[in-house]
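WARN no homologs supplied; continuing
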Amino acid sequence: PSDYCTSVGNASNDWISRVVFNTIDNASDQDEYGDYTAISTRVSIGQAIQLQLEPGKTNASDDEYWRIWIDYNQDETFDQGTELVYSFFGKGNVYGTLFVQDDAQTGPTRMRIAMQRDGYLEDACENPSFGEVEEYTLIINPAATARSGAKTSQTNLLSDWQIAPNPARDFLNVQWSGLTTGAPVELEVVN
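OK structure emitted
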């Protein structure tokens, strides 16, 4: 049995319809709580993960507020300061990218996705008034490294980036350990 706090929504009008995260592609119904921890995906420390979240709802004009927590230290709690990894709101589908944190412990852990109409959940243990919660398993692997003499792949270049905080609000620190002194770099930040 798990010691994770419970979070159960009211999915009568607003629910999570589909989650795409790395190799996970899960369509679901109005479950209020979806225990999909039997569905897992492998990720690596520093990896950029593309995600797609689709709401189901009865009123297309409602804003839906999304949050994702990942239990990086595997202590069966979702720390609001370090393990809240994604926040977004809007009326339609959500597309984004998140990076697996460098201090993540390797091995299986839990990811919690919450959607609520008209406002963010204050923490991962809150019950959505109008929305749903789903949970999945991530298997975190060590960071990928390039072999000596091998070409560096785009995935390995991404693992050299340090971006904090994630998510960002007013400022963003970017650091790239693969930078050669004097080499030109172009960086575009899009909100």
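Confidence is low (pLDDT under 50) at residues 146-159.
OK
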